[in-house]
Amino acid sequence: MKNRPLAALLMIALVAVSARAQARRFVSGPESTHAASLQELVNDAARTALTKFADQKLTQEQLSITLIDLRDPQHPVTASFRGNERVYPASVVKLFYLGAVHRWLEDKKIQETDELKRAVRDMIVDSSNEATQYVVDVLTQTTGGFELPPKEMEEWQNKRNAVNRYYASLGYTNINTNQKTFCEDAYGRERVSRGPKGENRNKLTTDAVARLLSEIATGKAVNAARSVQMMELLKRDYTGTSKDNDDQGHGFTGIALQGITGVKLWSKAGWTSTTRHDAAYIELPNGAKFVLVTFTTDHANEREIIPTVAKVVLDGIGSVK
Asked: Which of these, 269, 274, 307, 300, lies nearest to 91 by C-alpha position?
């Protein structure tokens, strides 16, 4: 207990260093003041979480945050804390498969069958891993199964990288979106694809996730009509109570919204035995509109880190000019 103040002060100092590094991104331009103010809000959210959960040994390496202010959707402003760090995304990757499905459908590369509609809905609304496996098969024209000879496996992996190529063409960097999600483990060619040490597992940054969710929210993902369809699946009800601690509306950012009236929430959460993440788009009664993406690692059972970050943002976003 005697070391707690020192640990907290050290965390605050580390966040301050990160804040100065982030601030260099906003030294000029007409939005520099707005961006700097938003960055201070993100830094405050990170500092608050790191201090509050110091006893649980939460470190800055286990926390990533990206905030995008969308009050002017034509001129979004972004701030982040470790926003470009690659993290295993759990089910948040399903947001990227959702966007890819609608791109493929728009380009008529795949057909919108009843089974595909059912799978896409279950992938996002229920976060079904089985549905996601089917969606990835459709997107990449690959299937799981027994191990393949090296040449065939190389061809298989090239097909499996179709979603990666799509997002790379849009300028997304530092991400990997070529693996299915599983309740337990992968076997056969799926396991081989991950690599001996898991080096080819899915990886996302909060910056990349926030960008995609903001484009969906502002009607720019594929097109306006398809963005609306995606938003319908992402709509969450955070009111009342839920018996499921991992309910996407009640177990993540939605915790911070309890008791606040008139708020609208759209989100995609992800959680495993080692990760707990949420990507949320929020509209407040005062006109504030923002995307907030928070990733945490090695604290999967701590439900309050994400809402702690969200509460600081909710309290401060109105004063950001």
From this structure: 269
Write the DSSP symbol of residue 203: B
Across the chain, which distance is largest between two alpha carbons, in Å? 64
Residue type, 88: Y
77 within 8 A of 38, measured Cβ to Cβ: yes
**How confident is the model over 72-93, as pLDDT tens digits?**
999 999 999 999 999 999 999 9
- Sign (positive or negative) of CA dihedral 125, 74, 204, 99: positive
249: left (phi over 0), alpha (psi -120 to 50) or beta: alpha
Please, which pLDDT band fits residue 127 given cuts at 50, 70 and 90?
very high
Continuous segment of H or E residues that includes residue 232: helix 224-234
The kind and range of the H/E element at 281 are: strand 275-283
pLDDT digits (tens, 9 = 90+) for 182-204: 999 999 999 999 999 999 999 99
The answer to whether 262 and 288 have CB atoms below 8 angstroms apart is no
3-class DSSP state of 150:
helix
pLDDT tens-place string over residues 25-40? 433 445 688 999 999 9
Per DSSP, helices labelled H in 30-170 are 32-52, 94-106, 114-125, 129-140, 150-160, 162-169
